[in-house]
Design brief:
It contains 7 helices and 4 strands. The protein is α+β, with helices and mostly antiparallel strands. Strands 1, 2, 3 and 4 form a 4-stranded antiparallel β-sheet that branches. The chain is elongated. It folds into 2 domains: 23-80; 91-197, Tetrahydropterin Synthase, Chain A (2-Layer Sandwich). It starts with a helix and ends with a strand.
């Protein structure tokens, strides 16, 4: 026969096993809170989406508008105008890495140069892509006639950039009449993405 103390201990163990642990209850509470928060966020996002589209539909429902016309408010939102009429996002045309033997006679030196051209627009980029073999040839010839000492100095790199810009403008003969400096030039800048001399 069990003693009263043993019976009480067994009853306490049975009660502890049947009651949920406090950690399990906290996990359920956190889970329900996360689900409720996700539901509120989804409802809020859906309501915002509905209100925005409802407002856009009211703006486009102008009875005086013709089928092809776009309301001014929607047109301004769809294509924000830059502060100045000439400023556009830059268009970059990366060229493949150039690896060239340099003109040093005392030692065998070479340069590995990564070049990216900043051009006026996508039309200029497409035109330069069509002339890419000639442009790559001209750039290779320019780098091959340089000495390592010239290219290690900042002034030498700037001079090389100017020469590459002139070479890139050569295929764009009719556009080059506007000048090769400033924002109006078809090739705005020559940027070096890597420059290794060995």
């Amino acid at each position: 026969m069990a003693t009263p103390a043993a019976a009480a201990a067994a009853a306490d163990r049975a009660e502890a096993e049947s009651a949920p642990s406090p950690a399990r209850g906290k996990k359920k509470l956190i889970l329900f809170g996360a689900v409720a928060l996700a539901l509120l966020l989804a409802l809020g996002g859906g309501a915002a989406f509905w209100f925005v589209h409802k407002q856009a539909a009211e703006v486009t429902a102008d009875p005086d508008a013709e089928p092809g016309d776009e309301p001014e408010a929607v047109a301004e939102e769809a294509a924000p105008k830059p502060k100045s009429g000439k400023h556009h996002l830059p268009v970059f045309l990366p060229l493949e890495i150039f690896t060239v033997n340099l003109a040093d006679r005392d030692a065998e030196r070479f340069a590995q140069v990564g070049i990216t051209l900043e051009v006026a627009d996508n039309k200029t980029s497409d035109l330069l892509k069509a002339y890419m073999p000639a442009l790559r040839n001209d750039v290779l010839m320019l780098i091959a006639h340089k000495k390592a000492a010239d290219l290690q100095e900042r002034a030498g790199k700037l001079e090389l950039a100017r020469e590459i810009k002139r070479a890139a403008l050569k295929p764009l003969a009719d556009a080059a009449d506007t000048g090769d400096d400033g924002d109006d030039a078809p090739v705005r800048a020559v940027l070096f993405s890597s420059f290794i001399i060995q």
